[in-house]
Amino acid sequence: MKIKNIIAFAIIIAAFSLNNIHAHCQVPCGIYDDAVRIIQIREHVTTIEKAMNKIAQLTSDKSSAQNMNQLVRWINTKEEHATFIQSIIADYFLAQRIKPKKKDEAGRQQYVDQTLLLQQIIVAAMKSKQTVDKSGPKSVSTLLNQFVELYFDEHGKEHINTIQKG
Known about the structure:
Layout: H1 2-23, H2 34-60, H3 65-97, H4 108-130, H5 135-151, H6 154-165
């Protein structure tokens, strides 16, 4: 009987621990940095571009088991990093940072513009998954720069530049 209680208690503790780990980023704890998310997205774009270059190189080289293995790995990497971009946009900016505005509320147009740009970034990241056309990651970068201009004040833009240089 005691062992069953201990096991049940351990399962309950584990379940609550897992929920806390996964839910943490959606709790208003204030430890996340918008500028860092932008830097992360830029790093993901760079990785996608590198993966596309490697895919092109491996498909033009002599076919071998090793090349095929590397090709699959680069395709998976490209897709994973596009998914990371989509997750940052959806889970961080859309779910937590961009606050909805009602039709006649102040800031409504900025909300609409930010939301549209973020949705376009998600689509461009999706297109980066589907093809090796370098216009996908280039589009993500262009749209992200537009979002930075719309979302951040001058201090925020300076913060991004400081982090990126560091």
